[in-house]
Structure formats: structure tokens, C-alpha cells
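Q: Okay, next protein. This is ATPase from Chitiniphilus eburneus. I've checked the sequence twice, so it should be correct. Can you predict the 3D structure?
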Amino acid sequence: MSTIQYLIGVDGGGTGTRICIAGLDGKELVRAEGGASALGQGVDKAWTNITLTIRAGFQKLGIDKPDFGTCIAGFGLSGVTVKAWAQEFENKNPGFASIVVETDGFSTLLGAHDGAHGGIIAIGTGSIGEAWLADGQRLEVGGWGFPTSDEGSGAYLGLKAINLVQRVVDGRSPETDFTRKLTSVTGNSRETVFEWMATMRQGECASLSPIVVEFGESDPLARQFLLEAGREVEVIGQALRRTEPSLPIAICGGGLSQALRPYIPAAFLESTRLPQKDSCAGALILAYRALAT
């Protein structure tokens, strides 16, 4: 390992890639962001965007032609749970001295607890709960994917919103300021709503969730949707704690995870903590541990 000079953490998902580069002490030197690298979008595409983003990071350090052979990289990637994709990704290593490939959920967990045991509930476009117990056991809750899972997430709220749009369009529910804002996106006729749904994937569905949040205090249905989402977050947490009731849990994610906090049952919310670091930092922990082995 005497030739290793840098450690790299990579957080790769369906909307982008975030990398951090550190020295052998594990302290971050620089970060960079790039295109999507979820394995479900193709392993070759993932590697292309990851290497471009890593090169951009090294350029910030004044290194135009980094030698990947002097680097250990830790990856927290969406799609790693599909073993064939993960194996193909590892097989196509473009020359890093060593790589450690984990789920983005586990890298988020490592970052949230700064490498210690614990659990996380990640809330964003989708959702998942993950725990790493003191005995080494790992648990996953939810995360089955769109449209059948992702409880409490942006996509979950979006599905409730598009169903409400359908009810308004055909006269089962009254039109309100909330529904008018929704139909400004989806259209307000059967034809336009069907057209919108024809291209509705997880991200498009989740794009309706900010409208739900916007009307959470003024519209009873929007508030109901958010309270139901908050309750789903609690249920995920209860499942993670089924064998370790005192398991420390961090609620992680972007803007939605913060916006949802007032709607999560208070007693459960008080038993959680804020994450210490992010998924990119967690992936860097993977690389740092690999250096020591």
C-alpha cells in the first residue's frame, strides 16, 4: 500500500454523482459533482460519469492527469443491491488500486454516524431504512422501489397527489387552490393527465411533492398526505429497531426530509438525531478502512 496517495469517496445516484478526495489521513481535500451514476442506468454510464467527476476533483487540486493506481475508492451507489450490476461494476474497475462497493444506503449510514453503528431513514425522491447493528447484522427496510414502495418519500406524496388530480378531473373531489396548483403541472383534463402519466417515472412523480409541502398548512388533504408520509417514516424506524429498541437513527436526505419533520410523530422524531456527515463522507470512510486492511 506504499504507493497509495489518495482516498476517494463516491456517492452515486440517479440524479448525480458527488465525490470527495482525501489524503491518507482521511481528511477531505476537495469535492466535485457530476452526472448520474446509478447502476440501473447502465454500468458503463456510471463509470463514465464517476471518472469524469473524479478527474474534475483532481483538476481542482491542480492535477490534470491523476493516476488511479495510486487511489483507493469507496463507492456508495444506487443499484448495488442487484448483484449482477454490482459485479459488472467491480469487473470494469478502470484502474483504481482498490475499490469497495456498497449501497448508497450504507454509505449514508456510515456518514450519518461517522462510521459507528446505527440506523438511517433516507427520505428523498425514494426512501429506505437501513441499519448496521452492534453485532454486525445489517437490516434493510423498504426501498423496494417505485411505484410499490418508497413510503414517506417524494414519489409517495406524488402518487397521492396524482390520484387527487384524477378525482378532481372526474368530479369525485372538489377543486381547491391546492388541486389547481397540481393541475397547472399535470393538466386538468383526462387527456392531459393521461399524457402526463405516460411519462411518469419516480422523479416525475416526486416533482409534485413540493406542491404538497407548500399547501401542508393551508389545505386539509395536503396535510393529511404529509401526516401519512410522516407516519410511514416512523413505521420504517420501528422496523429498524425491532431487535435493538435503543438503536440510534438519523433521518437523512435533502429538502423533503427537513420539510417532513413537523409531520413525523413527535415522540419518534425526538428519538432520532441529525446526520453527522453525508453519504459522500461515508463512502470515504469505506476507502479509509480499506487502506488499513
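A: Here is a summary of the prediction. DSSP finds twelve helices and nine strands in the chain. The first helix runs from residue 43 to 60.
Q: Noted. On to the next one.
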